[in-house]
């Protein structure tokens, strides 16, 4: 069989297995690092960073090394954001559950809490990719997350649908827990990278900034960005 065959090191089967391994390993690292709850933000930033850098673009070193590099570098800054967003989302969900059990509560009032929960979940999905990519303070990260959430509302709806599919998949097929989070993050990167690249200043050709891995998107992705 030729070196470019289906089962060669560069063949489709090898690429598929490498992708599958990257998804599973990133899922496992994310799940373990989320266990203390307050570190869920740093874990989410690291999972996004690792997924797009090593799994999609095949840059950097190993998946585990890139994950822990991002996790450690963002841990301190992520703690206030992680605690604040987690508490806010938990309070809204608990209050919605309480109001749902009270038949005297108007239905429109209950929908307000549902909407708040969706907005917080959407903000969560923007904040951590931004933290993994940009060097800015927490308030700037939050402002950026809110701005992007509404500016790219069609992407936000896609992210929320992906989150719903993830939760439904875990509920119906709990055996897929080691794979589904990584698969969801992998899918998120295709839209989120378009957003982050638009927010990044265009570097001068040949400059050190232009050599950073996240500018190395495929020609198809560049064309898609220009058409948006």
3D architecture notes:
This protein has 228 residues and is mainly alpha-helical. It has one domain (12-227). It has helices at residues 12-34, 40-56, 63-100, 107-133, 138-151, 153-172, 180-199, 219-227. The longest helix is centred in the middle third of the chain and has 38 residues, at 63-100. The radius of gyration is 19 Å and the shape is globular. Mean pLDDT is 86; it is low at 222-228.
Shape type: globular
Low-pLDDT residue spans: 222-228
The counted number of beta strands is 0
Q: Name the structural class.
A: mainly alpha
Largest sheet: none
Average predicted confidence as pLDDT:
86
What portion of the residues fall into strands of 2 or more residues? under 5%
The proportion of residues forming helix, as a percent range, comes to over 70%
Number of helices: 8
Measured distance between first and last alpha carbons: 43 Å
């Amino acid at each position: 069989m030729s070196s470019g065959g289906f089962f060669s090191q560069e063949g489709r089967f090898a690429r598929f297995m490498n992708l599958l391994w990257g998804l599973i390993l990133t899922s496992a690292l994310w799940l373990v690092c989320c266990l203390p709850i307050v570190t869920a933000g740093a874990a989410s930033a690291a999972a996004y960073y690792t997924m797009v850098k090593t799994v999609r673009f095949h840059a950097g070193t190993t998946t585990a090394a890139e994950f822990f590099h991002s996790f450690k570098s963002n841990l301190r800054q992520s703690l206030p954001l992680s605690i604040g967003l987690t508490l806010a989302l938990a309070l809204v969900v608990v209050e919605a559950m309480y109001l749902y059990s009270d038949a005297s509560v108007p239905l429109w009032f209950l929908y307000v809490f549902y909407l708040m929960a969706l907005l917080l979940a959407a903000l969560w999905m923007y904040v951590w990719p931004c933290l993994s990519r940009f060097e800015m303070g927490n308030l700037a990260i939050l402002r950026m997350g809110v701005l992007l959430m509404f500016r790219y509302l069609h992407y936000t709806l896609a992210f929320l649908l992906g989150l719903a599919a993830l939760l439904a998949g875990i509920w119906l097929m709990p055996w897929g827990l080691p794979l589904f989070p990584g698969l969801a993050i992998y899918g998120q990167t295709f839209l989120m990278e378009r957003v982050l690249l638009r927010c990044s200043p265009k570097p001068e050709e040949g400059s050190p900034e232009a050599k950073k891995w996240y500018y190395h998107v495929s020609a198809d992705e560049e064309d898609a960005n220009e058409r948006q």
